[in-house]
């Protein structure tokens, strides 16, 4: 069991990780691909496709975490 306050704090940390990944890692990696001239164009496109998918999944995770935070905050229970 976990107390409401601790759960909300943990969910906020998870939300920060998702936001940071999207704001920094995924965007940076996709933008950096143009400098990877040593990689074949087909390989760079595949990497971009994978990173774009990861970014989209991360945005979905962020949305789910936001809904969880809202649910926990609105819930009358103090232990989950």
Describe the structure.
The protein is mostly helical. It has 2 helices and no strands. Helix 1 runs antiparallel to helix 2. The protein is rod-shaped. The chain starts with a helix and ends in a 6-residue tail after the last helix. The mean pLDDT is 93.
Q: Overall pLDDT, averaged?
A: 93
Percent strand: under 5%
Biggest β-sheet strands, sense, barrel: none
Residue share in helix: over 70%
The total strand number stands at 0
Unreliable runs, pLDDT <50, ≥5 residues? none
**Tally of alpha and pi helices:** 2
Oligomer: single chain
How large, in whole angstroms, is the Cα Rg? Answer: 18 Å
The shape is rod-shaped
Could you give the distance between the termini? 5 Å
Q: Supply the helix-strand structural class.
A: mainly alpha
The ordered H/E elements are HH
What keywords describe this structure?
single chain, 80 residues, mainly alpha, 2 helices
């Amino acid at each position: 069991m976990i107390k409401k306050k601790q759960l909300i704090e943990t969910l906020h940390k998870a939300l920060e990780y998702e936001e940071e990944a999207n704001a920094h890692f995924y965007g940076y990696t996709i933008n950096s691909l143009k400098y990877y001239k040593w990689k074949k164009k087909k390989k760079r496109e595949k990497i971009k496709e994978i990173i774009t998918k990861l970014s989209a999944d991360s945005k979905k995770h962020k949305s789910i975490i936001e809904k969880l935070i809202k649910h926990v905050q609105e819930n009358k229970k103090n232990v989950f």
